TrEMBL record:
Belongs to the CdaR family. InterPro entries: CdaR-like_regulators, CdaR_GGDEF, PucR_C-HTH_dom, PucR_C-HTH_sf, RsbRD_N_dom. Residues 334-388 form the PucR C-terminal helix-turn-helix domain. Residues 20-157 form the RsbT co-antagonist protein RsbRD N-terminal domain. Residues 169-283 form the CdaR GGDEF-like domain. This is PucR family transcriptional regulator. It comes from the Bacteria.
Amino acid sequence: MTKRPVDVRERVRQEMVADPRVVEAVVAAVHEQVPAYAALDDSRLPEVRAIAAWGLERLLHLWATDAGLGPSDLRRFRGIAAARAADGRPVRAVLRAYRVAATVLTDEIAARAPGLTATDALALTRMLLTALDTLSEEMATAYAATSEDLTADRDRALRLLLDDLIAGRHATAGALTDRAARLGVQLPGPACLLVAEPAGPDRPDMTHDVVTALLDALGTTGAPDVTSPTTVRGHRAVLLLPAAAAARAGTALRALDLRGCAITAESPDRIAVAHRLAADALDTAPGHAYRGGRLLTDADAHVLALLGGHPAAPPDTIARLVLGPLTDPGQGHLLAALTAYLDTGSANAAARELHLHAQSLRYRLRRIRELTDRDPRDAWQRLTLDIARTIRP
């Protein structure tokens, strides 16, 4: 007896759902063919894979049962669209990803062609066309509504934007620019990511009032053409500022009894990297690194990451961040003075080693402080300088 079409389709459905290679084929095709997905880092792929697995199972079920999308399916697709509106991934890219997935689904079913009939093929075509048309309308509507809500609540939208940057949800600078444009804002560029926390042993949750006071102290509210998003994460404030604000950050933090870490060497589309560096630095920096309320910088953060066994940059990059102009060919005499001072432990001994007058050596040490903003006499800063000159190629 010939099996009914739905029985054959159910067998194919079970085979495909049980085969993890089908989902991987969908994810690979979307990653390759849709630019907005091609730029996603590895941290975002599990979400794409989970949605692909769910969508594959649902579409195969609809085909096997000659059914249509139900209310729960539509709610799920609307939720996906709202999430994409919040993280700034264009709706046209999302819908294209579904079309690519539908093509892969068709190819995978065709590979299991024995036993399938023209009726099965027509049912598959009808199901895919109907499903894609319905979900496109539902997702476009939900995406537009969420975008409108976010734009209307500007402060919340900016917090969500920075939260998404910290989570690494913007894969490209272009996607970030598009989202900022929809909000009608211009983000700082070049930028400084400042992570701040209470300086004392007690770490109460950060409040938005303190964040606002910090913004005022930094003077960023006087720059109407640039918007500085802020957010709160537990006892810490996170602020995306113009790079020039880093020079005022130490004073502003001390005035509010805060301490912090400012990262200026990462671009806005790498805010996730900058935040991880700053947060880890605040977690691991010794107390004397904040001597006089000193603000931690890129150099401090990278040295701490190196000491923790998880460097975030190559050794030569870390050395340049710490030593600054001392790595230039024309500053070899200053680097030699620093090396002698670190090796001998005193200006007089270093001067003797270099056959210099002690006053000349001290002048060079002053120049080193001016050029690097690091004092070799300070324990923490001396350590960072020593590490940098050691790992320098």
